[in-house]
Amino acid sequence: MKTLLVWVSGTLTAATVIIASSLIATKSSGQPTSFGSSAGALDVKTFAQNLVNPWALAFLPEGRVLVTEKPGRMRVVSAQGALSTPLKGVPEVWPAGQGGLLDVATDKDFAGNKTIYLCYAERTGNGGRTAVARAALVDGDAPRLDDVQVIFRQDGPLSSGNHYGCRIAQGADGNLFVSLGDHFAHRDEAQNLGNHLGKIIRIAPDGSVPKDNPFVGRADAKPEIWSYGHRNAQALAINPANDQLWEIEHGPRGGDEVNMIGPGKNYGWPVIGYGIDYSGAKIHDSTSKPGMEQPIKYWVPSIAPSGMAFYTAKLFPKWDGSLFTGALAGKMLVRLSLSGDKVTGEERLLLALNERIRDVRQGPDGALWLLTDNAAGRILRVTPAGE
Questions:
Q1: pLDDT the model gives residue 121
Q2: Cβ atoms within 10 Å of 48's Cβ, excluding its own
Q3: pLDDT class for 52, splitting at 50, 70, 90?
Q4: Among 49, 82, 107, 279, which residue's Cβ finds the most Cβ atoms within 10 Å?
Q5: What span, in angstroms and rounded, lies between the C-alpha atoms of 104 and 167?
Q6: Which residues contact 293 (CB under 8 A, 6 or more apart)?
Q7: Sign of the C-alpha dihedral, residues 86, 232, 301, 359?
Q8: Parallel/antiparallel/unpaired status of strands 244-250 and 73-77
Q9: Is 163 a catalytic site residue?
């Protein structure tokens, strides 16, 4: 354990952060490497490799995995870690800057309807925007996508290649939440309800607008909007304890946020926040303002969080109810302990791995599954040592 100075509600405060040391056992390909943690030694094994900037994964039956690569490829990974050829039928993406083929999610009724959802950067005019498509996954020796339909396209000033957001979470009612970035150069638009920049939207699986969305019927607002005042949310998940939507977004230099998302609420970007511009200039009016929500956790300096998973399985009983997120700049896996809507502690894991962690999922096997974001990206499986 180490005592660090962290920002809490605008005040520099001493806090305890658990930083787990690594106990390197082996680096052989396919063999586990062991790291320390509050739950005991962890084995980190390469499940699949040779992926170019993998961005998201989803689980399929029989131990297989669906994975996206940012340049525009999607593959099925066998239970033994073998990569399929790239799936045909994937929509054309704009693989520039932070854009490309990003999130993938299977429908909650996938076993019956074989439906998946994709979020990606789409080129239009002289820039890019976030788009969402649905498709049917046709399995077999040469898996492919059929009946591909674009169900949503982001409206507003275009991106030059940055801040697409692009995480998907499906609610119990089947409706889809999708995070949409502010396109970096248009941050003030996050407060403008007349477009989709810096928003989280809620749409039906066919792209239509649910009638109970908070801004339905308002002439000055896009009816898809669920919440606004976001920067670049690359983590979105439903808390299984209470079906509450949670989001984690990138700040600039500092000010990454964990938020509980409520319908119609304003999360403040860029009016309030805890970071500064990359130039060192001031961005925010203050750290709080009436009518704008406070994060339940923020990081200064930034760790660049991406992907998130609530842990509910039995493989790590000490971590039941924890929230996990990856870190790109921080090159680690972060575990947040929770008590209701409060973050009660933070543990920094796998630091010696020295990898940009793009996505985090809880697998059907109870393991933690991670994606490493680089040109030789991997799918990693994290289990208790010896499992």
A1: 98
A2: 23
A3: very high
A4: 107
A5: 8
A6: 229, 259, 262, 265, 266, 267, 268
A7: negative
A8: unpaired
A9: yes
What average pLDDT does this structure show over 55-71?
97
* Residue from 359, 351, 303, 346 nearest 328 by CA: 303
DSSP-derived secondary structure letter, 1: -
Which residues, in sequence order, are bridge partners of residue 377?
Answer: 51
Which CATH number is 203's domain given? Answer: 2.120.10.30
For 140-190, write each residue's pLDDT tens digit: 889 999 999 999 999 999 999 999 999 999 999 999 999 999 999 999 999
pLDDT bracket for residue 197 (50, 70, 90): very high
What tokens appear for 164 in the block?
């697409």
| pLDDT given at position 141 | 85
Is residue 4 pLDDT above 80, yes or no?
no
Number of separate domains in the chain: 1
Summarize pLDDT for 209-227 with one digit per residue, the tens: 999 999 999 999 999 999 9
Task: Return the residue matching tokens 């692009």.
Answer: 166
- How is residue 91 annotated by DSSP? P
Tell me which residue has tokens 């920049």: 197
Give bridge partners of residue 150 from the DSSP assignment.
Answer: 133
Contact partners, residue 220, CB within 8 Å, separation at least 6:
193, 194
- Catalytic residue, chosen from 163, 183, 186, 250, is 163
Q: Which residues of 189-212 are buried (b: 16+ CB within 10 A; e: fewer)?
A: bbbbbebbbbbbbbbebebebbee
Nearest by Cα to 273 from 190, 343, 155: 190
C-beta separation of 57 from 371 below 8 A: yes
Domain region containing 230: 2-384
Q: Which residue from 103, 101, 88 is spatially nearest to 141, judged by alpha carbons?
A: 88
Residue 364: helix, strand or coil by DSSP? coil
pTM above the 0.85 mark? yes
Look at residue 358 in the predicted model and tell me its pLDDT.
98
Please give the biggest Cα pair distance in the chain: 61
**Counting beta carbons within 10 angstroms of the beta carbon of residue 36, is it exposed (0 to 12), middle (13 to 18) or buried (19 or more)?**
middle
